[in-house]
Every structure is written in C-alpha cells, then in structure tokens.
Amino acid sequence: MTVREGELLWSPPQEFVQNSNLTQLMNWLKEQDIVEVDDYSSLWQWSVDQPEAFWGSLWQYFDVQSDTPYKAVVDSLEMRPGVKWFEGSRVNFAEHILRHAQSNDGTAIYAMSEAATLRETSWPELARQVRVLATALRARGIKPGDSVCGVMPNLTETVVAMLAAISVGAVWSNAAPEFGAQAINDRLGQAKPKMLFLCDGYEFNGKQFDRAEEFSRLIDSFDSLDAIVRFDVIGSGTPFSVDKPVESWESLMAGEDPGEQFLFERVPSDHPLWYVFSSGTTGLPKAIAHSHVGVLMEMLKFMTFHMNLKPGDTSFFYTTTGWVMFNLVVGMMLTGASIALYDGSPVYPSTDVLWKLAETSGATVFGASPSYVQLMEDNKVVPKDSFDLSRLNTILVGGSPSMPATFAWFYNNVKQDLWLTSQSGGTEIASAFVAASPTLPVHAAEIQARALAMNVDSLDDDGKPVRDDVGELICRTPFPSMPLYFLNDPDMKKYWESYFEEIPGVWRHGDFIKINQRGGCYIYGRSDATLNRYGVRIGTAEIYRAVESMPEISDSMIVCVETGDGGFYMPLFVQLAEGATLDENLNKAIAARLKSECSPRHVPDEVVPVSEIPYTLTGKKLEVPVRKLLLGYAADKVVGRGSMKNADAIDYYIDFAADFIAKRAAS
C-alpha cells in the first residue's frame, strides 16, 4: 500500500490496550487515590502539571531501592542546568537491572555476530558474571567515580563490563571498535580512563579488521590508564605494543563469585553513571554526564510505558556500542525483558540476517533506522515470507525522522497487526521527548504523543505555541535525565549555550516539530540545519521524505546559504540508485514531487549528483558542516573527520564549496 502522512494505519485491539503497562499504571494510580485518569492525554496532562507527584508515584510504583530516603523529588521546577532530583537518595542503576535475576531464570541476553551463531545468557548467569568482574575491578583499585571505558563490540561481554563498572560506582563510557583512533581519543580521552576494556579488532561485512597496532597508539595517549583488559574478537594474536600491563578478559573472569556477599555501590543522586558523547561534527564531541537516579527513573518510565516491555519480551534494536542506543538497549532490561544483540553488518552474510535473529530469539520488539528499511526495500526483502515472526508485536523506528513509506513497508512486508512506533529524543537526555503509547492508534510517519512528564511544545518565530504547523521543539519543565554536566565545562557555559541561551526559560532541543490537534508529533529535522529561504523556514526532513521515496534516489542532503546579495543558494545533493541517471526528466520529476508534496519553495536551485552523502559515526547527515563550507569556513574548522563514518566523502563537498565561492567572487 501507498500511504500519506497522517493516514490511520493501525488501531490497538482492546486486549492489547487492557494488558498494556500504561493501563496498569492508570489503574494503580486510581487504586492508590493519587489521581484518576482514563486515557493517555489526561495522564500526560497530569504528569506535566504535577511532575513532583508523577515522579514520586513512579518511585513507589517501581519500588526503587535506596539506602536512604530522598528529601524531595525535585528542588526546582525552573528549567535550567543544575536541577537536583531525588536529593538524599542513594541508588545503583545496575542493581535495578540485575534484581530480575532473583526471580527470572530465563534468558537475559541473546547475542549473535557475523562469525558466531546465537548464544544465550540467562539472568542468573549474567548476574554471576557481573559480580565476578565487578569484584575483579574492586581488587584492581577501581573506586566510585573512577572512569572505566570500553572499546568493545556489540556482544554480551560489553554489557557485562558496563554493568560491572556501574555496579562498583565507576563511570562508564563506550566507543565502537570501528571508530578511528582519533575519534576514540576525542571521546574517551575526555573521560580520562583509569581502566580500559579493549578488543583486538572487529568483523564487518565478512572481513576482519585487526586494530591492535592502532589501539596501541591509543593506549599510549591515555596517561590516566592503570589497567588494560584485552578481549579477543578476531583472535589475530597481534599484541598491544605498550609499556603498561595488559590482562586478558579470561583472567578477570576466572575469579570466584561472591554470590550474596556482593554489594552494589549505591551512590548519591549527583553521582555520574556514564559519559555519552554527541556526534562532534564541528569540534570535540560533548562528553555528557548523566546520574544513576536520573537515568534509572527516566528509563523505568520510558521502557515500561512507552516501549511496553515486560518479562517475557525480547527486544532488538540494531546499533553499535558507539551510539547511545546501546545504552538504551541495556536499559530495556530494567523491565525484566530480554535483549538481543547483533555485532556486524546488518546485511551480512545475507540481507535478511537481522530477521533471522528476530525469529531465532523470538523477538517481540524489532528496532532499526529508516535507512535500514530502505536497504530492505532495495534488496526486495519480505520478512513475512521467510520467517516466523508470530511473537513480534512492536516495531521501533529511530535514529532519524521516518517517512510514510517507512511505516507502509512494515505493514506490507512484516505483518498487518503491528504497533509501529517512532520516537525522538537524543544522546543528551538518554530518552525521548516524543514517544509511543500502546493505547493510541498509529498514523503514518507520526510519533504518537509527547512522552510522559515531558512538557514539550512547539514555538513559532515569535515564541508562541503553534499547532498543525512546524515550530521549534522546546521543553518547559525539567526532567530527571537532564545532564548533570559536560566534561571540561566547569562553569556550565557550553551546557547553557547548547540548550538554554537562545530561548530563556526552556530547553531548546534544536529540532523542528509539528504537533497536531490530537497530540501526534512529527519531527522535521534539525533546526540548526534550517533551510531559511526568503524568510520561510523549511525542515530538511520534509524534503528527504519526498525525494527519498523516489526509486531513482537512494539518499540525499540539502543545505541553504545566503549569497550576500539578499539571495539564497539551495543545492540538493542526491546519491542515485543503481542504474539511475540525473537527466532533465529526473530533475523535473524531483521538482514536481517537491512542489506537490511540500511547496514551490522546497524546490532546490540545483540538483547535484554525488557518489556519497557524508555521515557522522552516529548516522547524522553533515548538513551543518557542508553549509558552513559553502559560507566560506575553513574545512579544518568545521569538519571533524574522526567523527565521520565515511571521512573521504567530505572531500567532494570541500571542492564543491571552493568552486562555488570562487564563482561567486568572480561574478
């Protein structure tokens, strides 16, 4: 089927609604005489009107374990850095995941890679491994507040290392092994690791990549390191050429299990849980610290009510360890649900390998990005014809704005009875501002609602709320998973400038959003990549939705720059599908599509064929750096090659910008 934005695609069966965690919460709130609400809209309204009551009730609902009671849910409802949540409490994030091992002896983690078939780790076995490794960390001098980092693959061992570090109060950071050494150093170097878990290489698309030599140089750059733990992925045998001692993963895991004698380090409410990193396209990535209690409360809410995860569910989302989605996948286990991990190319050894994982793991939730859906469509993959997906009931599409065609593909090729969700948030909040509800219908390309206790609004250029039109996404009141701070930002200057400076009194996230009358939301791309043409703001995602639905276009990127004479130049870069040619007919077809689906102002000044669209390591198009190149900025000031997935791709745009500027000067 072909669908248009906003078209109704699915309504939840009554049984699905009644059995949802959201309905259970509303029933419990009524039983406890806290509040009586009977639908999502009224529950959301109460949560933003009474955030202290909402978050306080969740503390009770989830039986959060703390050494001490909190003094207050929150110390201020002013939207600013430094708001304190559950001050006085002492909790541990990992403890709340692993407490499920006490009552569940089923599978906690399914893991598969290009080289290894599916393996399962039970809840008790996961807890045992974490206790053993955490005890080894303590024996090697790791204390609360110490930095422990990993350059590890998307496998069970990385989850174990992460939870072990968190269990003892250390601060965890991830980087993916496919990152270049400079990109890793740009991130983990800020964290100043005391201990580093480091693999010997990785496998991708059927090839092995030995990183031991490059990682040796990385180790030498970390003066703070006391301990290095090697985890062999490819088994090359290439040693780390370093002066510091290197221990093997196996040696740390050979210790005894302390069992019930093991104590989780419960930490204060302002104790950092991890450092996660922004994409870093124009400089060093921001190193963002979140708290144990903040992420615990936010993820309990999000995974339970917006993902509807329960014990017995298995959730899969294709990601790497260098993206905050890995942290979110681990957070899914707070609900007692299992997770499935895949390490490697999503289309190797076959284009449908992830659907094989979904079948063999019995996935109830399948998650991927819109670009993965495009891959499936290009390769004519029809999962419903080849796999038993009878347990699958939920789809999570994330990472970039979804198009109606993305939604249609799942209903056409997977199954008709699906709760298809799209959500949007960011690394900065380790959650989502706009999210899904199992009690609401699904409309094409629409994010179902604003997330609970996220007081999100859309503002026009005059700072007034707007509905059924595109505006700036803002949040009016604080929430627990706001960053504690950024590293190397002692006076909170970068933190303030990033979210609070432009519109005082609210969090400005930097996304364009449209909220309709029923509360549905659409994300239209980054507002810092705004196409501001003759005073009309255009979201880039609007153009991508229209253009990338054409069979001749496999990818695209658009920017807009002022030309200095009151005019504008808006080129559309297109990566053509195999066999397609950018001729006069295709140019006219692109213009016609944009006119009919968007407006005449969305039609570019020029369509430029390119071999590749440049992306960050976390999958974001480099719209802002390319725009700055066209404005005359020096390439080394606006392009961080170490933060790029395809660093060589930017060379074309550097040359293109130089030619553009030269022609402008000559005219």
TrEMBL record:
Biological-process GO terms, alphabetical: lipid metabolic process
Domain of life: Bacteria
Keyword Transcription regulation: no
Domain Acetyl-coenzyme A synthetase N-terminal: 40-96
Entry keywords, A to Z: ATP-binding, Ligase, Nucleotide-binding
Family: Belongs to the ATP-dependent AMP-binding enzyme family.
Protein name per the record: Acetoacetate--CoA ligase
